Amino acid sequence: MSELTVPVIAVDGPGGAGKGTITQMLARELGWHLLDSGALYRLTALAATRKGVSLDDEAGLVAVAASLDVAFEPGVEGEPVRVLLDGADVTREIRTESCGNNASLVAVMQPVRDALLQRQRDFQKSPGLVADGRDMGTVVFPEAPVKIFLTASAEERARRRFNQLKDAGADVTMQDLLDEIRARDERDMNRAAAPLKPADDAQVIDSTGLSIKEVFDRCMAVAGQA
Ligand code: C5P
Question: What gap in Å lies between CA 87 and CA 211, rounded to an integer?
Fold first, then answer.
């Protein structure tokens, strides 16, 4: 089956807007594959740190990205997808704030993005793909028949993250999280390489004040219109 005949739902937007939860729900509901492209940038940053490659060494980072040994194993019902790097489970490790920030530093570099491009496109397999990221609808899958840009106010995203981290026992303040979210948004939206922005043909959904179920229903409605 050619790539073009396999449908893609591209879901882009800033960190903390609920893309991870929603894309997992969509993939499960439809029985489609899932691409968490942010995890690939996080894994590149983590693998580089482990190998002693500096986060400003572009050539070194490209080599790390090109040779990433990663696997995504579906989680059992209600559990997140398990992420393996060199065969070891790094599911929790890649979710830390520092790994997310490091990911956004390496993601600024076009050659690093190029090194991860085909790996992302290879996820496009029958019967369909739900793709989560920043440039799914603009760069990686520009032909996707369904494009959603899921956003939420920075305050709401910081509040959600704060609640998650507090539940996990972490010692963080709302203000620190809000500052980090704003800095990451700024970097993602203003970089030259694949900046975060809605594709021209994307439907924008603002999840501020909506429940997960409401956001999911809106996304399913958008998917059904295509
Ligand atoms: O979505 P997540 O928070 O896991 O992404 C981590 C970082 O990776 C983002 O802040 C962004 O800089 C980068 N990223 C990207 N393009 C994607 C997915 C993530 O640049 N498609």
Answer: 36
